[in-house]
Amino acid sequence: VQLQASGGGLVQAGGSLRLSCAASGGTLSRFSVAWFRQGPGEDRKAVAQISWYGPRTKYADSVNGQFTISRDDAKSTVYLQMNNLKPEDTAVYYCAGRRMSTVSARQVDYDTWGQGTLVTVSS
Predict the structure, then answer these.
(1) Tens of pLDDT along 36-76?
(2) CB neighbours of 58 closer than 8 A, spacing ≥ 6?
(3) Contacts of 122 (CB under 8 A, 6+ apart)
(4) Cα dihedral sign for 21, 103, 40, 89?
(5) What is the pLDDT of residues 79-99, one digit of tens each?
(6) Where are the beta strands (DSSP E) in the chain?
(7) For residue 120, how many other CB atoms are within 10 A of its CB?
């Protein structure tokens, strides 16, 4: 399975974007998926995760209530809806998958990565 992230772009503060993480070469139905982001000069950190079982979701405190992760297994796609965007949300966003029923915030626990998609929030 390969993952492809898309949907990034330039948006003004307060705006919204929806990122997509689409799978090819297989299905995401038995993958738990996470979105990570890496801001300028920062480490890559998990912002949202969704398990395939349940599904269950988990968010970083910094985006809880602002971002929503969801999945459509019929389309083999995981989404990240980002609302009320702030300049500090500017980052390259990556999606990652793992063949486990539980989620993790650790990069090392994911073995399938998509390329990043850049989100720039202007003030």
Answers:
(1) 999 999 999 999 999 999 899 999 999 999 999 999 999 99
(2) 48, 49, 50, 103, 105
(3) 10, 11, 12, 13, 87
(4) positive
(5) 999 999 999 999 999 999 999
(6) 2-6, 9-12, 17-24, 32-38, 45-50, 57-59, 67-72, 77-82, 91-98, 112-113, 117-122
(7) 14
